[in-house]
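Continuing the batch. This is chain 6 of the set; chains 1 through 5 are on the previous pages. Same settings as before, nothing changed between runs. Recording input and output for traceability.
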Amino acid sequence: MIISFGGPGNLKIQTGGTTILTEGLNGEVSGRMKPDIFIRTRESSVLSQPKDKTPNAENIIHGPGEYEIKDIEITGLPDFVYLIKAEEIRLGLSGGKDVDILFAPDTADGVKAIQQLHPKIVISSAGSYKELEKGLGKKAEGLDKLVIKKKEIPTTPLSRIICLKV
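Output for chain 6:
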């Protein structure tokens, strides 16, 4: 699995031959990206933007529901919370329970969610990390991308805080 950052809230997850892209906080996505799965993370959507700003995705996930696409399980919960399972790794986008990797904003609310959910790895979804470091008392690692396999997931909660670079 390879996870990279395209701007605040805009994450690219590559697993096997499948690419998942999440909608950015500003609602924009690079028109050049061609994900297999696009996950909307807000009510207003890039889907109403001009065609050159809309991702050309085979599958668009929006809101609550259970989806299985190309051996990837996605559960959409209220308030645009998603649980993603791929390569036997559980990812939480904006929240979720029993996750290995949690994408969280660099805010006090993000810190609260992390403290409640106890993920093993936290990835800042905002591109910044100061609040996360302060609130969790742990130093963040800056990475261009995260390449990880199930056997590399730590066994203890909050083992790593990662800030992906653009």
